[in-house]
Amino acid sequence: MKPRVRELIVVEGRYDKNTLLQVVDAAVLETGGFGIFRDRETAALLRRLAAERGVIVLTDSDGAGFVIRNHLKGILPKEQVKHAYIPDVAGKERRKARAGREGKLGVEGMKPAVLLEALRRCGATFLDGDGAQSRAGREPITKADLLELGLAGPDSAARRQALQKRLRLPAHLTANGLLEVLNLLYTREELEDEISRESL
Asked: How large is the angle between the packed helices 63-75 and 40-53, nearest 10 degrees?
């Protein structure tokens, strides 16, 4: 069983996220590389999640990774952020034809033990097997719940967009992304209350 991490882990891209999710059970959000610099909605979401559960920044060890890390340092409260660092390891990821500019492996190229050690060193909160990774002991919101609430399925896009706007969530979230964020911020009951407050 993979260890559970309470904090939201922020990585650069989808391959980093995929690699990390093979190692830990955690909420992982991608910055889209330098896309985070101009994405105010995602920055606002990160601040919200940092306040709710804390954030771990895990970027590549190259120059670009540190530019992204420093940007996140500037937009997130220091006391709500932990920084995990991977070592400098020469090489290239299997999916790439050649190594990056600096010739270092990124998060996606790290061995599982290295990633776990990086998380332990930064002070990640590992949860035991009986606790839910999201808010205290509650049932998670599921895709079936979204369907029942009219937020998934045919003709649901407008309702989903209206809810995301009202909850101050990024407009470009996919249905799966929305589900992940809702589970980080709301219980099912809280979500139902939000929906019933205003007809979408």
From this structure: 70
